[in-house]
Design a protein that fits this description.
By secondary structure, this protein is mostly beta strands. The protein contains no helices and nine strands. It has strands spanning 23-31, 34-41, 46-50, 56-62, 64-69, 72-77, 81-84, 90-93, 99-106. It has a five-stranded antiparallel sheet, with no helix packed on it. The protein has a four-stranded antiparallel sheet with strand order 3-8-5-6, with no helix packed on it. The radius of gyration is 14 Å and the shape is globular.
Length: 109
């Protein structure tokens, strides 16, 4: 964890900037039991289908994401969140423009 963000009020959306034709990430918290990471996706960028062995919460900070979970597409907009269950295949895509999100993953037995 970065020391400069501890015990400080932060604008979450401002923790990361968009970069042309890129996906940018910044890990905010990394612990044995889970992580919190912010991402910025430029339009047309995404993460291909994959799965994780633990639940993951995605909160959209800016823009709109198309999130596919087990073959079902969900449009998630700024101020909304979706929880992806452990082991369900999922993919994320910036379709209508760039977006930022915060990903919280909680590990469990």
């Amino acid at each position: 964890m970065e020391k400069d963000i501890l015990n400080t009020t932060l604008n979450v959306e401002g923790l990361i900037d968009y970069q042309k034709d890129s996906v940018v990430s910044r890990e905010i918290i990394k612990k044995d039991l889970g992580t919190v990471t912010v991402f910025a996706f430029d339009k047309g960028q995404g993460l291909s289908e994959h799965s994780a062995p633990f639940d993951a919460l995605v909160q959209i900070l800016d823009g709109e994401a198309e999130i596919t979970i087990s073959g079902k597409k969900h449009t998630v907009s700024k101020g909304e969140m979706i929880i992806m269950a452990a082991n369900d295949p999922h993919a994320l895509q910036a379709v209508n423009g760039p977006y930022k999100m915060m990903l919280t993953m909680i590990k469990s037995d």
